[in-house]
UniProtKB/TrEMBL annotation:
Domain GS catalytic: 164-595
Organism (species): Blautia faecicola
GO biological process: glutamine biosynthetic process
Database matches in InterPro entries: Gln-synt_C, Gln_synt_N, Gln_synth/guanido_kin_cat_dom, Gln_synth_cat_dom, Gln_synth_gly_rich_site, GS_Type-3, GSIII_N
Listed GO MF terms: glutamine synthetase activity
Sequence ranges assigned to domain GS beta-grasp in this UniProt record: 65-159
Pfam families per the UniProt record, alphabetical: Gln-synt_C, Gln-synt_C-ter, GSIII_N
Protein name according to UniProt: Glutamine synthetase type III
Length: 704
């Protein structure tokens, strides 16, 4: 048996959290820092110096030799630069360990190589990182020793955001302001703050590290570019929620311990639908911390895999033919005194504040469906959204029977006078307790589902940051709240006005509600009739960022400037083009240098067999001949497709305009890649397994 772990003891042991601050900081300093964290009061350098000193002492006790501003540029992953705590040697040749307030609150990495979408020319490479004191610093232990990581925002010399965190924090301020305004209208005078709470469920695949290293497609692109389906896929549903195998269980145990030490409340783990696919969910936290924690989770999943001889794959679609991976972004609004604005209570029809909040969310999501869709787009996610897999690319909201019924009552009669009840769940077995049933069932196919006291946005890709979706959610809902507050603050009769507003919002935006099967073709037709956008790819989604309505809203709430939105648009097109380019080149490389030579060897092997068998009188070589014919035919097809792919990739690389280039990769290069994959996957089914130059899907998914 493995050694006993005291979870309570290890939880947060590597985090400079509130308990540590209370214990270590002078009272006055602690109080001022708390004010900065909670009320956004400016931090003086004097206070920062004291905090920095204590942070350093604490980190050194944990074995840290370096500190690092840890930030989230527009690459989708985190970035860091490590500095040792040491000062210049003294005359006696010794050094001191030091860390100043200035070093804590501001850093200046040479940031010229991060994507900025034209925001900076390389000769103006200055970028600044600024401490986000609302997300706690932590000490990370790895092969580099121990490092004090300080979560920071990342901006240009002129103050434009170059990262995910800055706009996220801005959007949290926007929703806080408007939500507070809204609850004041309902007589709440005590709550001081409203925070978007986020719980991001993370899906991932685990494969054997040695086999992974034999696949250049996985190494270069994180997904398989070739691969025939094994005899068995996910059709038996025997992996989903199945018993976790010992090797994987040992891995999960290590992941959990690492995460708990870092204060990440890893809570749920299970096998997912596809073979070798798993999921991890933490307990929800304030949006910016949840975003940071999700990055820590992704890094930890990868790092710990190495120790277990495994590779963790976070790509949205590592294997064609089985489910890909996503990330469910659970979102709600919670006050500092614990009131969840999305809690309907037992009788939602009477809960006017809840109905107003809900109707505002309907309005926000309907009006900005394109932005929400865009926020979930990344290159890998194109294989899921709008392809043959869940969730669909059309944004709709699932409310469940109970709430849909309330909305229906409001729209048709102007008042809602009852709420459907959940009742008892009768199992029919006397020894089982009868359970109280939720008033609402679940709908797995909806991209945006109400799940009791939160919304669950299910479109996000597994390797993407959850920052973007939450920036959009916070801002679009802030906008709808603000519009509501403007009307209600000036109303002569509040009760009548709020009633009318809820009804109007519901009536005008009811089209976004869909409780049926989101995977069906009928829904695609129905959504079209309703005028809901069906945006099939990342390249088609990007323009949503810079529409007039998007710019007006983001500027109004000081979340993005027009320039920032334009720069993000450029970064996205560039990223798309670059990633597809890498995939295309990896395919060319693998096909030309590994697969085609292997197929030629196999063809020769067949030809040799035919010749030698024929020397024996009366022998039948029809099977060998048939295989050889089939092989050479597919080889010809492969070679032709390879040439086309080479030409298209070459042509793509010459296009200068980012948008046009991304479109060309999307329309032309993707198609050429598919055309190459097809004959090669057929060849894999023919060629002797011993001669195929890489592990198969079956080897990867079933022999972990
Ligand atoms: P489900 O089964 O609906 O997916 P879970 O209880 O497993 O729900 O929770 C999934 C994720 O949602 C977890 O990360 C959880 O912490 C988070 N979550 C639960 N309640 C809320 C809430 N009120 N706001 C935001 N996230 C929440
Ligand atoms: Mg869920």
């Amino acid at each position: 048996m493995s050694e006993y772990v005291n979870v309570v003891e290890i939880f947060g042991e590597n985090v400079f959290n509130d308990a540590v601050m209370q214990a270590r900081l002078p009272k006055k300093v602690y109080k001022e820092l708390k004010q900065t964290m909670e009320e956004g009061k400016e931090l003086t350098l004097e206070i920062a110096d004291v905090v920095a000193h204590e942070m350093k002492e604490w980190a050194i006790e944990k074995g840290a030799t370096h500190y690092s501003h840890w930030f989230q540029p527009l690459t989708g992953v985190t970035a860091e630069k490590h500095d040792a705590f040491i000062t210049a040697p003294k005359p006696d040749g010794k050094v001191l360990m030091s860390f100043s307030g200035k070093e804590l609150i501001k850093g200046e990495p040479d940031a010229s190589s991060f994507p900025s979408g034209g925001l900076r020319a390389t000769f103006e490479a200055r970028g600044y990182t600024a401490w986000d004191c609302t997300s706690p610093a932590f000490v990370r232990q790895d092969a580099a020793g121990a490092t004090l990581c300080i979560p920071t925002a990342f901006c240009s010399y002129t103050g434009e955001a170059l990262d995910q965190k800055t706009p996220l924090l801005r959007s949290m301020e926007a929703i806080n302001k408007e939500a507070l305004r809204l609850i004041r209208l309902f007589g709440n005078t005590t709550s001081k703050k409203v925070t978007p709470s986020v719980g991001a469920e993370q899906e991932y695949f685990l494969v054997d590290a040695a086999k992974f290293m034999k696949r250049k497609d996985l190494i270069y692109t994180g997904r398989t570019l070739f691969g025939a389906m094994p005899p068995k896929g996910q059709e038996l549903d025997d992996h989903y929620f199945g018993t976790i195998r010992q090797k994987i269980a040992g891995y999960m145990k290590d992941v959990n311990e690492e995460l708990w030490k870092l204060g990440v409340s890893s809570k749920t783990q299970h096998n997912e639908v596809a073979p070798a696919q798993h999921e991890l969910a933490p307990i929800y936290a304030p949006a910016n911390i949840a975003v940071d924690h999700n990055q820590i989770i992704m890094q930890t999943l990868k790092r710990v895999a190495r120790k277990h001889g495994l590779k963790c794959i976070l790509h949205e679609k590592p294997f064609a033919g089985v489910n890909g991976s996503g990330k469910h972004d659970n979102w709600s609004l919670v006050t500092d005194d614990g009131i969840n604005l999305l809690e309907p209570g037992k009788t939602p029809h009477e809960n006017v504040q809840f109905l107003l909040v809900l109707s505002c969310i309907l309005k926000a999501v309907d009006r900005h469906a394109d932005l929400l869709r865009e926020s979930a787009s990344d290159v890998g996610n194109d294989h899921r959204l709008g392809a043959n897999e869940a969730p669909p690319a059309i944004i709709s909201i699932y409310l469940g029977e109970q709430l849909e019924d309330v909305v229906e009552q409001l729209v048709s009669t102007g008042t809602a006078d009852h709420s459907l009840k959940g009742g008892r769940l009768m199992t029919g077995v006397r020894t089982l307790p009868d359970l109280a049933k939720d008033a609402t069932d679940r709908n797995r196919t909806s991209p945006f589902a109400f799940t009791g006291n939160k919304f669950e946005f299910r479109m996000v890709g597994s390797q993407d940051s959850v920052a973007a979706p939450n920036i959009v959610l916070n801002t679009i809902v802030a906008e709808a709240f603000q519009e509501a507050c403007k009307i209600l603050e000036n109303a002569e009769d509040f009760d009548v006005a709020v009633h009318d507003l809820i009804k109007t919002n519901c009536a005008e935006h009811q089209r976004i509600i869909f409780n049926g099967n989101g995977y069906s073709d009928a829904w695609v037709e129905e959504a079209k009739r309703r005028g809901l956008p069906n945006i099939r790819s990342m390249v088609d989604a990007i323009p949503a960022l810079t529409t007039e309505k998007s710019i007006a809203m983001f500027e109004h709430f000081h979340v993005f400037t027009k320039t920032e939105l334009e720069s993000r648009t450029e970064v996205k097109y560039e990223t798309y083009a670059k990633e597809i380019n890498v995939e295309a080149r990896a395919m060319i490389d693998i096909a030309a240098k590994q697969i085609i030579p292997a197929v030629i060897k196999y063809a020769k092997h067949l030809a040799d067999a035919i010749i030698s068998i024929q020397t024996i009188p009366g022998m039948d070589v029809s099977v060998e001949t048939e295989l050889l014919k089939e092989t050479t035919k597919l080889l010809r097809e492969s070679q032709t497709a390879l040439k086309t792919l080479q030409e298209k990739t070459e042509a793509a690389s010459l296009i200068e305009n980012n948008e046009r280039q991304a479109r060309y990769y999307h329309d032309e290069v993707n198609a050429a890649m598919e055309a190459l994959r097809k004959p090669i996957d057929q060849l894999e089914m023919i060629v002797d397994k011993e001669m195929w130059p890489m592990p198969s899907y079956g080897d990867l998914m079933f022999e972990v």
